[in-house]
């Protein structure tokens, strides 16, 4: 049985990332070559493919599938995979939610892998409603996949910390989007429906495990952070989870990569 390694990372701009040293002496491409995950899902790319170098469009050894927002320099995701996917989708099927380039779905080794950059609801109530509408439409999308008999993995920046353990200062953030009851209730709902938070499946109640830190307050150095980035898997994959982890040593963004290893 093979181990499938998947990484997910909100890069906060792939063009800026391509010019940075992200770990020791490695830039993005040398780091990717050395770590060599089977699938790498990037969010908040803020670019169309034609705006980046050929090596960033298709890194050596990888197929790439991009989804970009209609608005330039905003949102966007890309999925790099060693194996050419059998199917690729770029939408969840709701026109007003599909204009921002927030999802790429591929089928890989009979598993549906959704790379998603979920909306941020902090701007105002209108954006919070958009975020919640996206949550619900995305769940409808994955439930259709499950109804077809598919195993589902979804990953990305969910833009919500689920439990008090998943952020440094839960009390002072209870009225802030990213930790609102309505947002956390959606995560409760998907867990009740059989989606497994792979990191908590492996690490249970391990504290101070974060994937995002504010750059304005040097929060990363003090580890004052939030766990906003996840790998969820459907219940049928539970016994296939080998490991789930966070890579806080990787810099280049206000988020760090998170990973999942599955037996396939």
Structure description:
- The protein has a single domain, classed as Endonuclease/exonuclease/phosphatase (Deoxyribonuclease I, Chain A, 4-Layer Sandwich).
- It contains seven helices and 16 strands.
- The protein has helices spanning 14-17, 28-35, 54-57, 125-147, 181-192, 198-203, 219-222; strands spanning 3-10, 21-23, 26-27, 39-43, 63-67, 77-81, 88-89, 103-108, 111-117, 151-157, 195-197, 212-213, 225-226, 229-234, 241-246, 258-263.
- A hairpin with a 2-residue loop joins strand 2 (21-23) and strand 3.
- The radius of gyration is 17 Å and the shape is globular.
- The mean pLDDT is 97.
Task: Tell me the overall shape.
Answer: globular
CATH topology: Deoxyribonuclease I, Chain A
- Label the structural class: alpha+beta
The protein's oligomeric status is single chain
Tell me the strand order in the biggest sheet.
5-6-4-1-16-15
CATH class, anyone?
Alpha Beta
Percentage of residues in DSSP E strands: 25-35%
What letter string, H or E per element, gives the SSE order?
A: EHEEHEHEEEEEHEHEHEHEEEE
Mean pLDDT: 97
Low-confidence blocks of residues:
none
What is the number of domains? 1
Fourth CATH level, the homologous superfamily: Endonuclease/exonuclease/phosphatase
Binned, the helix content reads 10-25%
- Specify the biggest β-sheet: 6 strands, mixed
CA-based gyration radius: 17 Å
Number of helices: 7
Could you tell me how far the N terminus lies from the C terminus, measured between alpha carbons in angstroms?
6 Å
The CATH architecture name reads 4-Layer Sandwich
Using DSSP, what is the number of strands? 16
């Amino acid at each position: 049985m093979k181990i499938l390694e998947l990484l997910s990372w909100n890069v906060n701009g792939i063009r800026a990332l391509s010019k940075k040293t992200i770990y020791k002496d490695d830039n993005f491409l040398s780091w990717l070559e050395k770590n060599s995950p089977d699938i790498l899902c990037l969010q908040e790319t803020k670019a169309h493919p034609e705006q980046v170098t050929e090596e960033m469009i298709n890194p050596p050894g990888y197929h790439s599938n991009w989804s970009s927002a209609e608005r330039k320099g905003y949102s966007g995701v890309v999925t790099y995979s060693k194996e050419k996917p059998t199917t690729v989708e770029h939408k969840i099927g709701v026109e007003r939610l599909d204009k921002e380039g927030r999802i790429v779905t591929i089928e890989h080794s009979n598993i549906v892998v959704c790379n998603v950059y979920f909306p941020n609801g902090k701007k105002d109530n209108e954006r919070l409603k958009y975020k919640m509408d996206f949550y619900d439409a995305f769940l409808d999308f994955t439930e259709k996949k499950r109804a077809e008999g598919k195993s589902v993995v979804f990953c990305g920046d969910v833009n919500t910390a689920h439990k008090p353990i998943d952020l440094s200062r839960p009390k002072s953030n209870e009225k802030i989007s990213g930790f609102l009851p309505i947002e956390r209730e959606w995560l409760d709902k998907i867990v009740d429906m059989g989606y497994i938070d792979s990191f908590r499946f492996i690490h249970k109640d391990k504290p101070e495990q974060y994937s995002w830190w504010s750059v304005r307050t040097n929060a990363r150095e003090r580890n004052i952070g939030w766990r906003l980035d996840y790998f969820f898997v459907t219940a049928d994959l539970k016994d296939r989870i080998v490991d789930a982890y966070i890579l806080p040593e990787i810099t280049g963004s206000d988020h760090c990569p998170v990973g999942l290893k599955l037996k396939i």
